[in-house]
Amino acid sequence: MSATPNQVLRQAGQRTTEVPLGHGVRIGGSGFVVLAGPCALEGQEQVERTAAAVHHAGAHVLRGGAFKPRTSPYSFQGLGEPGLKLLKDAGHRLRLPVVSEVMDAQQLPVMLDYVDVLQIGARNMQNFSLLRAVAKAGRPVVLKRGFGCTLEEWLLAAEYLLDGGQPNVVLCERGIRSFDNTLRNTLDLAGVAWMKERSHLPVIVDPSHSTGQRSLVTPMALAAAAAGADGLMVEVHPTPEAALCDGPQALTPTLFEGLMQALAPVLAAVGRPLFGQELRRAVGGAR
Amino acid sequence: MSATPNQVLRQAGQRTTEVPLGHGVRIGGSGFVVLAGPCALEGQEQVERTAAAVHHAGAHVLRGGAFKPRTSPYSFQGLGEPGLKLLKDAGHRLRLPVVSEVMDAQQLPVMLDYVDVLQIGARNMQNFSLLRAVAKAGRPVVLKRGFGCTLEEWLLAAEYLLDGGQPNVVLCERGIRSFDNTLRNTLDLAGVAWMKERSHLPVIVDPSHSTGQRSLVTPMALAAAAAGADGLMVEVHPTPEAALCDGPQALTPTLFEGLMQALAPVLAAVGRPLFGQELRRAVGGAR
Amino acid sequence: MSATPNQVLRQAGQRTTEVPLGHGVRIGGSGFVVLAGPCALEGQEQVERTAAAVHHAGAHVLRGGAFKPRTSPYSFQGLGEPGLKLLKDAGHRLRLPVVSEVMDAQQLPVMLDYVDVLQIGARNMQNFSLLRAVAKAGRPVVLKRGFGCTLEEWLLAAEYLLDGGQPNVVLCERGIRSFDNTLRNTLDLAGVAWMKERSHLPVIVDPSHSTGQRSLVTPMALAAAAAGADGLMVEVHPTPEAALCDGPQALTPTLFEGLMQALAPVLAAVGRPLFGQELRRAVGGAR
Amino acid sequence: MSATPNQVLRQAGQRTTEVPLGHGVRIGGSGFVVLAGPCALEGQEQVERTAAAVHHAGAHVLRGGAFKPRTSPYSFQGLGEPGLKLLKDAGHRLRLPVVSEVMDAQQLPVMLDYVDVLQIGARNMQNFSLLRAVAKAGRPVVLKRGFGCTLEEWLLAAEYLLDGGQPNVVLCERGIRSFDNTLRNTLDLAGVAWMKERSHLPVIVDPSHSTGQRSLVTPMALAAAAAGADGLMVEVHPTPEAALCDGPQALTPTLFEGLMQALAPVLAAVGRPLFGQELRRAVGGAR
Q1: Contact C193, C159 (CB under 8 A)
Q2: How far apart are CA D199 and CA D222, in angstroms?
Q3: Distance in angstroms (rounded) separating the CA atoms of residues A251 and A257
Q4: Is residue C173 scored above 70 in pLDDT?
Q5: Is A2 within the bounds of a domain?
Q6: How far is CA C75 from the centre of its chain?
Q7: Residue closest to C97 by CA, chosen among C61, C121, C126
Q8: C71 at interface of B, judged by CB pairs closer than 8 A
Q9: What 8-state DSSP symbol labels residue A281?
Q10: Which of A251, B23, C96, C99 could form a disulfide with A255 if both were Cys (CB 3.0 to 4.6 A apart)?
């Protein structure tokens, strides 16, 4: 067997893989899926307010970090298991599947008690030991692209997951590094379109980490939808100015609601409904 | 006076500058403007067929290079003045303004005989002598972003033009370099959204050079429209496989027509008509 | 405590930390230290021939990978523990300390049975769980710079190790990614000089991975020495054309001997002996 | 003829081209050549003091900018012709050839009255009109690498000069852009070593612009010498804190003298004398 990817590649005529995320939510079909929530889980009130807000605005999956990979050992490192419990409880109440980042194999047992979907973060995209362990954990995976990694390396990281036994993988573009540091990262939307051609896996876009700037999140969310992405992962915080992590890029609930309203017509323009609205449309309903 | 830009910056509440491109076409208002044509002008048949096709599909401005900045001295360097004449004739017949790249100040007299809009290419974005000379030439300018230049440097290059006396400047994002060379360049759409906030100048996107791959041109064109760009610059060639320059990224007339058809609903979704359709809409017409 | 580094920073007048690597070898003092060996441990003959050759040429530490972080799941993944045993045996016979990469915390117990120094690879520089676990393992660490990571992030990764309890950290520059992919990576020697100013930790250079091209290894090794690096990590293979990993950048034993001979006068020019030759010099001996 | 370089490529066994720079100074042979002077020519006293200092310390060529390509139109743009006159006078008195940057073809007549060597700056490396004009001007050329350009593009820019009739071209590496903006640019010394293999043209290194930081200039100068560069271009200013351009990277005369003293033994270690010392060595003299 050569060192090139094969299980992740789209064969001629092959449809995008539909990945079940829990509570009936599926990504990769015609429905566009929105994952939203705070960067870091901080406490009960923050989690519940955010969950209620994103659910109300139409998000399909609740995200939130309990184990945070922080550049500095002196930055807030996350609530750990208590955070996961808050996340699960909020998701359970609202019937939203939940996703959270796993940083190492030892965290897997506790993660599996709480989350529907495992996220592998950008800094761990080439942590091959983690990829192998997560592949055996039996849960769908959101695999973020490393900010210093090529499209081909991203494909091969996904190949580790498929080869290890986990077919349900969602790729998430979150920006790469370039010489221009005006924004936090350079969002590679052409890479998303390229990936949609090359792989049968669903691809989503994170307009929050990639730009690092609140006012650019909605334009990039709309651009991602127009470019053919299968979904979005968006950071929302009830009081961004008080966030313990990445406040400048978090949307308020109001701004997130605006994003969702702006998104619907763009999706309609490219022939895709929001997930869950295919049926309503089919039976003549409207959101 | 400090070394920071000021004339190009958007003041609070300031509207985007409307730049007249000729034959009544204006960019920067609500109407979205499409510039299209071949990378290089190659001969009468090629120019006329392309011009007819892009006009038929709804493009507003005809583009084509007569003086080509080529990496190798042994590559096709462009037809020169005879190419400009073909471009002008084709534009005249179809009542389309024409744009072409000027590589140095000595070319300006001949350029001014033929073109409505002067383009400064990516490799010359920081050719400050050229910027000063073009600023005095009295024609609107399309200023491409250098593939190795920051957003701030791009702003300051435009400042040279405004400070030199030319207020009618259109910024064109055409991709930057990053470590990932899977595609020709990395299209920086978040940079476009950032620039729209920061400057009152219109910003367009070139999805052809930035991706270098035909199949990605339409997805990136739609993404640019969704992100808030004021227009597009697209390469079209009647027989891309025979093009003397950049064939792999050129759309056929048929593909370009598909792009224009896909574009209309995305523009509608973000509340912008194609240029020239505001009126028809206002009087009850439809395209 | 702020999120900025502090334990890794060089205070005014502070000397470079001397890190003991085993068998009496110390790095960070006046003596320049050379770590050499194969990219991947492949079998007994390969390990023993390489070890004998690098020892003969004057290397101080034997390196070799048993657990290989490979971009593709279908590439050779390393011999695992049997490889470590070969490495330890070869080092023991020649009285050379040995260094090998640890990819995850679960490998630590077996690693500790065999190696004197733990290496954290470029892809794991921001695997913070691994950094914390390695910090508690009680062995000196070589911390490679991530190819997509800034100098400041590299400092903060080292801070995780010092903050976690391991003061003996050696930083290893191995090239970063840039838009120019002519060579495998872009070796950042100015970053090495910057780091020597900013941190009290010893800094070494890997001219093999950074260039990916055999003929450039010696020039970059000499440049590193002239720039003020404290040592080198060099890949050597008895038959590079048959190597299971990274053959094109491996030196043959003969070429490595040439590197060591060329290195001595450059080190003398910047006032540093090879490690182990300070004493001989002091007592009037010569190599 | 294909679009690949040929006149600049080193044929098997071909020696490096020796480029005459004026006043008997030649670069590309065994002698290492140092070009030094201020970033911008500012006035008589500054030019004369700098010239005397760099001559005293052993530099071979005097550099200084009269036409400055500045990112902002509001930054100091250079003294123009009066600056060139100061440069020529200072060089004439000390019998040092002088080099200065030409920004466009219209400046050539005045430049030719004053300078021995024409410099093409990083921002104009792909200003092909300028390359063609300079190729016909009959003077040796220093061609700086564009900070966003690949090694292959640099080769092809030099090919424009040779193909246009000027065989005496010196390549100057001055740093490229990467995601890490800690330093001004990323100095690509491995690219220098690669270029020495690939081309027969002499290659020099600018440790001033590449690092942007005074304290790193000498380490990078030594590294360049060890890596096989044919010379250096270094910025020196009598009072860097008062410099009108790039003060933070300028060496004082004292620091420059230190650089030259540190350079000699490194050059000796790689078997190269400073230019002009070959003969003294040959007749038994020492500097």
Answers
A1: no
A2: 22
A3: 9
A4: yes
A5: no
A6: 23
A7: C61
A8: no
A9: H
A10: A251
- Ranges of beta strands (E only) in chain B are 19-22, 25-27, 33-37, 61-63, 98-101, 117-120, 141-144, 169-173, 203-205, 231-235
Count of domains in chain A?
A: 1
Nearest to D210 among C190, C213, C270 (CB): C190
Q: In chain C, which residues have their Cβ closer than 8 Å to the Cβ of A130? A: 104, 127
Q: Are D108 and D134 in contact (CB under 8 A)?
A: yes
User: In the 8-state DSSP scheme, what is residue C22?
Assistant: E
Question: Which SS3 state, helix, strand or coil, does residue C227 take?
Answer: helix
Task: Please tell me the distance from the alpha carbon of residue D272 to that of residue D228, in angstroms, as a whole number.
Answer: 9
Closest-CA residue to A143 (of A164, A118, A167, A162): A118
| Full domain range(s) for residue B226 | 19-277
**How many residues are recorded in chain C?**
287
Choose from B176, B179, B183 for mutation: most chain C CBs within 10 A: B179
Radius of gyration of chain D (CA): 17
Name the residue among A94, A89, A10, A36 with its Cα closest to residue A274. A36
Q: What are the structure tokens assigned to B269, written together?
A: 């979704």
Other CB atoms within 10 A of residue B39 CB: 23
Q: Are A213 and A177 in contact (CB under 8 A)?
A: no
Given CA atoms D50, D54, D60, D64 in this order, what sign does their dihedral have? negative
What letter represents residue B207's amino acid? P
Residue C87 lies in a domain: yes
Domain of B62, CATH number, reads 3.20.20.70
DSSP letter assigned to residue B252: P
Q: Which two tokens stand for residue C163?
A: 């903050």
pLDDT given for residue C3 in this prediction: 84
**B118/B134 Cα distance (integer angstroms):** 8
Q: Is C156 on the interface with A (CB under 8 A)?
A: yes
Give the whole-angstrom CA distance, residue C84 versus residue B9. 61
In a domain, D176, yes or no: yes
Chain A residues with CB-CB distance to B186 below 8 A: 176, 178, 186, 188, 190-191
Residues B200, B15 contacting (CB under 8 angstroms):
yes
Q: Which residues of chain D have pLDDT under 70?
A: 1-2, 279-287
- Retrieve residue C199's tokens: 């941190």
Is there a domain that residue A284 lies in?
A: no
In chain A, the residue whose alpha carbon lies closest to the alpha carbon of C151 is A71
Q: Cα(B47)–Cα(B40) distance, rounded to whole angstroms?
A: 9
Q: Could you read off the pLDDT of B205-235 as tens digits, one per residue?
A: 999 999 999 999 999 999 999 999 999 999 9
> What's at D1, amino acid-wise?
M
Predicted local confidence at residue D278, as pLDDT: 80
Q: How many Cα neighbours within 13 Å face the side chain of B229?
A: 33
Length of chain B: 287
CB contacts of D69 in chain B (<8 Å) are 126, 128
Would strands D231-235 and D33-37 be described as parallel, antiparallel, or unpaired? parallel
Q: Tell me the H-state helices in chain D.
A: 44-57, 81-94, 108-114, 128-135, 151-163, 189-198, 207-211, 214-227, 253-269, 277-282
Amino acid at B104: D
pLDDT for residue B95: 98
Nearest to C104 among A5, A126, A129 (CB): A129
* Nearest CA among A126, B135, C266 for reference residue D228: C266
Buried b (16+ CB within 10 A) or exposed e, A102-134: bbbbebbebbeebbbbbbbbbbbbbbbbbbbbb
**CA pair distance A51, A57, nearest whole angstrom:** 10
Q: How far apart are CA B210 and CA B225, in angstroms?
A: 15
Tell me what pLDDT residue D2 has.
66
Q: Is the pLDDT of residue B113 over 90?
A: yes
Per-residue pLDDT at A2 exceeds 50: yes
- Please count the CA atoms within 13 angstroms of the CA of B271 that sit on its side-chain side: 6
